[in-house]
Amino acid sequence: MKAMKDITKDILILAVICYVFFMLGNGILNLTNPDEVFYSGTAKEMMQNNTWSVPILFTQPQFEKPILTYWLMRFGFEVFGVSNFSARIFPALFAFLGVIWAYLFATAAWRQRKKAFLCALILAGSGFYIGMARTVFTDMIFSVFITLALVSFYAGYLKPKTKNTGILLFFVFSALAVLAKGPLGIMIPAFAVLLFLVFKKELKFILSPVSTLGFLVFLIIAVPWYALMIKEYGTGFIREFFYNDHVRRLLEAEHASNDTWYFYPATAIACMAPWSLFVLASLGQFFRDFKNKVSSPENLFLFCWIGSVFLAFQFAHSKLVSYILPMFPALAILTGSYIHDKLTLGKTRAILVVSSITWIMFLFLPAGLLFSANKYSKYIIDLAPVYIFIGIFTLLLAVMFVLLLKKKLLWNIYLLSVCVPLLLFFVFFAHKDYEDHVSSKNACSFLLSNYKVDNTILCSKIFVRGVRFYTDKPVAVAAGGFKAVNFFSPHPVPYLNTIESISDFLKNQKTTYCILNKSTYKFLEAIMSDRYFKFEKLNLFGDEYIIRISAI
């Protein structure tokens, strides 16, 4: 009974931490280009078209991602209205769920509350995890379902009495992951489990009647929506979803600069900040233990978890750091276990060294911010948030320095977990300085408030999703320089990439309102101003030029 009360207490504390880290202030910054407005716009248009079965964007079905994330977002919009906060609420809630399951995994594996709490805190305080918790993507929801599936399996592995339940839940959560992002929802957890059982020479564990039942449950949950889409849209859905968004990404790089062998190893470590050096130390310890055949089953399972995610994406040419988010819970648990074991055993030298180097690295943050604020002060609307943050962060570093001198290493770890949230709150408070560079909300509000827009808005590619979301108007893309690459997944909007197509578009509309970046605006003005078109600059928000083009 006392143990349950203690666990409940820990979860309540983690709930408060997660609310502050993941949700507090989520309504401040407007939804950003190009991705947040893509997912939010799809859920919004599903609501406007009163459909729950088909993702819709630009008034047409879009097949880039499965349905589950849109179901959740539409539900949020129905309950709370269409807003910044309601769009971001489910990634935040799922991030919290991931932290709790990391805690429960560590509790079940080691039966040490302090270790479990530290593992969960490291996940909650990881920079990229916080960022994804506060951003509208499918990746956090997908990642947490992967976490739920693998933790369920391991709970069943640990206790024979819960084996059947664990395996069934493994398949249920894997099916939901498939509905959140696609076939990798079963491929990643299945490979992790098989890899672990091969290492343990216990492959027969999964060869049981409950696995057959679990697979049937998986099919019942995961298959119907895909079957419906194939029935309704046939080869169009198959070509876009399975080939373009899965097979083609294996073969072609959407972001060529990311297509290097070191992209995922480097970004995984960097994005675990402020724990990056601790992660390296914990991985080093794991490999030493594995070489000496003394690694624990828990650590081996965590490594198989990390390895399955890495192998699923490493050899694909299209690489984004968000793809490997499912490995972050395992990295956090492995790191938390390493830190706790070192401190408990009194082997504090490594933790002291890593903590000290991390502290030195963080010294550059307030110093660099102070230098930048003064050098680029003309771009900053209000310097007060900058100086407040520098003062608070410097005070935090001073306290951490005292704790390091006194070798209060666990308390230093606790304080380290607030570094990224503190930086994030500064970003929120300073949002007016950069918001117009990342969101089309203010540009669209100005346009609709001051001018009668009753036709298609011409946009730069980067703004087209945001303009559609914030105006509900038809949109078209002007390809600046005619060298711009079309969308990796084609959108059902006019893509104007020749002089003739742009000229015809402008003639047909008589008066065209545009939201363009500088390069596209100047390019169009240069090639079209001598073709009987008048250009008027109406306003500027960040890099978004509001232009009116009239046929003379």
Care to describe what's here?
The chain is an alpha/beta fold. The protein has three domains: 343 residues, no CATH class; 88 residues; 112 residues. 66% of the residues lie in helices and 7% in strands. It contains 23 helices and eight strands. Strand 3, helix 21 and strand 4 form a beta-alpha-beta unit. Helix 4 packs parallel to helix 7 and helix 16 packs antiparallel against helix 18.
**Cα-based radius of gyration, to the nearest Å:** 25 Å
Shape: globular
Helix content: 55-70%
Number of helices: 23
Lateral strand order in the biggest sheet: 5-4-3-6-8-7
The biggest sheet, with number of strands, parallel, antiparallel or mixed sense and barrel status, is: 6 strands, mixed
Structural class: alpha/beta
Strand content of the residues, in percent? Answer: 5-15%
How far from one another are the termini? 81 Å
Task: Describe the SSE topology.
Elements (H helix, E strand, L loop, with lengths): L1 H22 L12 H13 L7 E2 L2 E2 L6 H13 L3 H27 L2 H12 L2 H7 L5 H20 L4 H18 L3 H17 L8 H43 L11 H9 L4 H16 L5 H18 L13 H17 L4 H27 L8 H22 L3 H8 L2 H11 L5 H4 L2 H10 L6 E3 L4 H8 L3 E4 L16 E2 L2 H11 L1 E6 L1 H11 L4 E9 L2 E8 L1
Compact overview of the structure:
With 552 residues, the chain is α/β, with parallel strands linked by helices. It is built from 23 helices and 8 strands.
